[in-house]
Amino acid sequence: MWKVFLVISMVVLGGAGFLGYQNQEKLKETYGARVSTEKSLGLARDDLEKTKGEVVQIVKAIEDVVVEIEKVQTQKSGLETTKQDDMIKLTELKNQLEGSNAELAKAKEFLALVPEIEKVKEDLMKNEQRILELQQAVANAEASIAQANLQQQKVEEFANEKAALLADIAAGRIRGEFASSIKKAFNDWGFVIIEGGSEQGVVKLAQLDVVRGGQPICKLLVTSVEPGEAAAEVIPGSLTPGQIIQEGDTVTKAAVPNVPVAPAAPAGGEAPAGAPPAEGAAPAGAPAMDPFGAPAAPAAPAAPAGAPAMDPFGAPPAAAPAGAAPAAMDPFGAPAAPAAPATPATPPAAGAPADPFAPAPGAPATPTPPAKPADPFAP
What does the alpha-carbon distance between residue 184 and residue 218 come to, in Å, rounded to a whole number? Predict the structure, then answer.
């Protein structure tokens, strides 16, 4: 009997040793995955700090463009003054030419009456030479005026292009077509990294659409731009219920005109009400991991409905939009055009597909986009 118990004990000990070995291997794999994740999050934090520096450089570049436009306007004023001076000189030369022609006519009338014909001929030749010189001076003045007009046209075209570029940057408009993909997604913090940056025409405050398999996922608001990539936040309320942003999702320029949106990150990557948790997601109530390695804070009581989400980078919560956004500032000091009144939404036609990004019934009206700045060179 004791031999049977001995055999059973050996079998149990052998099974326990085998299970312990397997658990040790799984522990090593889990630890390696954790180290890799912490390294990736550290790199993401470094990228974010670099992006903040790039934002400062972009702001400085915009200020330099404004100074350059002011210089161009000063040059334009100088060219206009030169043009006016040339017009005055041309008028004087034409008057002198008319006077010389009158003198030549008188000389020809009295030619037969003057006894000193040779002297009259000499005077006549001098007058003709003077007329040729005046005609050459008039031609030179006209060429100078034409050159001044050409320079003025080039200056105006350059100033208009600079003003249009500045207006596009301030309004967050992307010139031309843009299509890219999600490089990194931080759903817990409500922001993503996009393939493509300023070299592909992406500008700050541009609005983008995220789609997967032809189905809309959410809308993004670009917050910072680098030459090869850009960072963007998820526009609150645009995320499709039950969906999360994934790496490789398609990103395109928003199909509708830009609407002023206050960028705000969702609190802790909170999923919409009623949406099922994503596969592998933490159970409800568990605090989200900090991507920068900070220890998890104890769970806090639920915030009242309607409270603004906290920014994971410490920025104060954005205020709700109220009415029309202020018009863009004119770099030359011209008064801004008054904003047009908001147009009431038109109900969709019967059978038309619903807009996946349209506000829910009863939601507050969308703010009116900023008015286009006045042309500083318009007559």
Answer: 15
